[in-house]
Amino acid sequence: MFTLISLPYAPDALEPVISAQTLGFHHGKHLQGYVNNLNAALPGSGFEDLELEEIVRKASGGIFNNAGQILNHNLYFTQFRAPGQAGGDGKADAAPVGTLAAQITKQFGSFEAFQAEFAAKGAGLFGSGWVWLSADDKGELVITQEPGAGNPVTKGLRPLLTFDVWEHAYYLDYQNRRPDHLKALWSIVNWEEIERRYTR
């Protein structure tokens, strides 16, 4: 049985980027719904004893959709910190750090160029889904658009960073202004966490 993850910050900690109201619906209603649906579908499915990522790699239909959304949201919600919150070194990290920063510069030329490509793919994804930064088994970075409940693990990639472009992620705060939502999210990314995912 899967359970709803606890948020590593207070419900209002991400304001004004993500309001407490949006977070309450997104985490407490939408994600809880996916957890409930997956738990109801697992008995007799053959997936009961698998880890979440393994279910996403192997399942299809409703089990894939709900498992994928749980995995996606777990990674999404745990990649943020309050705006301006200091990292482990006592300084706010407005940009990538360490090995990841060097790889981004190597592949994209600059952090700003990476941001522009990532945001463009997020804004340009038709309908609902996710834009992801992932790494392959050689550490090369890949930006992908994943519709619906898609996750890069199905392509053999390791997911690092994601922006949710389902309307429920931003509509209460930004209405139909998806690009504004994507732009605002940069200020709450916890780059120490993204670096940890990259180097693990």
Features of the shown structure:
three-stranded antiparallel sheet, minor pseudopilin epsh fold, globular, 200 residues, mainly alpha
Could you explain how this protein is built, in words?
The protein has 200 residues and is mainly alpha-helical. It has a single domain, classed as minor pseudopilin epsh fold (3-Layer(bab) Sandwich), CATH 3.55.40. It is 46% helix and 10% strand. It contains 8 helices and 3 strands; from the N terminus they run αααααβββααα. It has helices at 20-41, 52-58, 61-77, 98-108, 111-124, 171-174, 178-185, 191-199, and strands spanning 129-135, 141-147, 158-164. A 3-stranded antiparallel β-sheet has the order 2-1-3, with helices on both faces. β1 (129-135) and β2 (141-147) form a beta hairpin. α5 runs antiparallel to α7 (178-185). It is globular and about 50 Å long.
CATH topology label: minor pseudopilin epsh fold
- Poorly predicted regions: 88-92
Tell me, what's the shape? globular
CATH class: Alpha Beta
Number of domains: 1
Strand arrangement across the biggest beta sheet: 2-1-3
The CATH superfamily is known as: Iron/manganese superoxide dismutase, C-terminal domain
Distance between the termini: 26 Å
Number of H/I helices? 8
The count of β-strands is: 3
CATH architecture: 3-Layer(bab) Sandwich
Strand content: 5-15%
Structural class: mainly alpha
Q: In angstroms, what is the radius of gyration?
A: 16 Å
Question: Any chance you could write out the topology, listing elements then pairs?
Answer:
Blueprint lengths: L19 H22 L10 H7 L2 H17 L20 H11 L2 H14 L4 E7 L5 E7 L10 E7 L6 H4 L3 H8 L5 H9 L1
Antiparallel strand pairs: 1-2, 1-3
Helix pairs in contact: 1-3, 2-3, 4-8, 5-7
